[in-house]
Write a structure and sequence with these properties.
about 425 residues, D-Amino Acid Oxidase, Chain A, domain 2, 2 domains, alpha+beta, single chain, binds flavin-adenine dinucleotide, FAD/NAD(P)-binding domain, eight-stranded mixed sheet, nine-stranded mixed sheet, 12 helices
């Protein structure tokens, strides 16, 4: 099947070429997708429409399709696009979650799910790196992580400052007294994973539309259809709005104050030629109070993420240029923790944004005004890793199947 046929079959009416050019060649092999049927007013009709093809939406759409539903996935810029929070190159995965057992349990299931999907999609998605959390001393959160991991049977190693220096001679541990390593943690190739998920969705018969969508006509407390920017409508029984940092724009009254969208600068620093000390397995993901990062994956360089930035980012229009202040902060951090990298050049940068709730719990709940609209988002800097499991959960919730009530309570809108 050539790319033009793929686009026609997957129902991308506008902008489809953009997606086709993003999808790697081998992923294009596809089985025919059913053409959406027409409602009496002429709008294509699905069982479920998912708006937003990021970590929340792409996995949900795939899970729904695998459950046998007719599903349309709509994304304004295409799944895995560079404005999306899920469109960065890499995201970390770990089971350690302080006291937040619900997320730790989900992350543990997600580790297995990623491996299964990696085998199914036939592309490398997950690299095991380990994750090292360091601190001046044991904190309640670090102790809670250690205790939870031990309860879940997840191996860990604890270090004193002296042991850290011996184990990681390429790092500086100035001001650090303890470390906790989760050796099974790792890194997911985020953009590739979303592209592969969207591709699997299309191959399995889902319909993908590249368009901006907004809630449209409603009747009797139910949304009947959503409106696309080209003036057409898509009708469905159920709608899931998984619009990440755009959710406050889609539902300003409901979510404008519940979800904040801070900018985050991400910097990759080159490693010296032939130096293997800053790539896995020598260097794990690292985390401490104001910084975290990853070793060099795919030769990209060591990733350093300062954890502050302006709070009112607009994902549509703001320019993706890193702030020189963050560059200086990241360099000062390198000089302290990775002295051999202090003078290395920046090899790549990304500007991402978070979609933070006040308590950093996700939001997966019904819209109070529409009985058939589910809101799924509020990733708060930690949702990507859960994608394959979270998507199944949201899919079940959308169609009224049984879900974990404890998790549902944790992620409800009114909390
Ligand atoms: C710097 C940084 C580091 C992070 N690190 C980690 C990590 O290590 N581990 C981890 O698990 N998580 C991490 N996260 C968090 C994780 O990336 C996010 O929680 C997750 O990607 C959010 O996914 P999403 O689907 O909600 O949003 P998005 O990925 O932004 O997807 C939303 C999609 O909706 C589309 N859309 C929006 N509005 C509309 C509309 N009206 N019509 C049609 N389409 C629309 C957009 O085009 C977009 O594709 C990090 C986040 C940041 C910013």
């Amino acid at each position: 099947m050539n790319r033009r046929t793929f686009i026609q079959r997957t129902g991308v009416p506008i902008g489809g070429a953009a997606l086709a050019s993003l999808l790697p060649g081998p992923l294009m092999a596809a089985s025919p997708a059913p053409t959406p049927t027409r409602s009496p007013r002429g709008a294509p009709t699905s069982d479920v429409v998912v708006i937003g093809g990021g970590a929340f939406g792409a996995w949900t759409a795939l899970a729904l399709r695998e459950m046998g539903h007719r599903v349309t996935l709509i994304d304004a810029y295409g799944p895995g696009n560079s404005r999306a929070t899920s469109g960065d190159e890499t995201r970390q995965i770990r089971v350690g979650y302080g006291e937040r057992e619900g997320y730790a349990r989900m992350a543990q299931r997600a580790m297995d799910a990623w491996r299964t999907r990696e085998a199914e999609f036939g592309i490398p998605l997950l690299t095991t790196t380990g994750r090292l959390e360091i601190a001046p001393d044991w904190t309640p959160a670090l102790r809670a992580t250690q205790a939870m991991l031990s309860r879940f049977g997840v191996p860990t190693e604890a270090f004193t400052a002296e042991e850290l220096r011996r184990r990681y001679p390429q790092m500086g541990f100035d001001g650090i007294g303890v470390g906790l390593l989760e050796p099974g943690a790792g890194v997911v190739r985020a953009k590739q994973a979303i592209l592969a998920t969207a591709d699997a969705f299309c191959r399995k018969g889902g319909t993908l539309i590249i368009q901006h969508a907004a809630p449209g006509r409603a009747e009797g407390g139910r949304l009947v259809e959503c409106m696309l920017a080209d003036g057409t409508c898509v009708a469905a029984q159920q709608f899931i709005f998984a619009c990440g940092p755009w959710l406050p724009k889609v539902f300003p009254e409901l979510l404008g104050r519940r979800i904040k969208v801070p900018k985050r600068d991400v910097l990759y620093f080159g490693i010296p030629a032939g130096d293997t000390r800053f790539a896995p397995p020598a260097l794990p993901n690292f985390s401490e109070s104001a910084y975290y990062g990853s070793p060099s994956i795919d030769g990209r360089g060591v990733k350093v993420c300062p954890t502050n930035g302006p709070d009112n980012w607009d994902p549509d229009v703001d320019e993706r240029v890193v702030d020189p202040v963050q560059v200086r902060r990241a360099r000062a951090y390198l000089a302290r923790r990775f002295p051999a990298l202090a003078a290395q050049p920046i090899t790549e940068t990304r500007v991402c944004q978070l979609e933070n709730t006040d308590d950093e719990h996700f939001i997966v709940d019904r819209h109070p005004s529409y009985a058939n609209v589910l809101i799924a988002g509020g990733g708060s800097g930690h949702a990507f890793k859960h994608g394959p499991v979270l998507g199944e959960h949201i899919a079940r919730r959308a169609v009224g199947d049984a879900t974990d009530p404890v998790f549902d309570a944790m992620v409800r809108l009114a909390r």
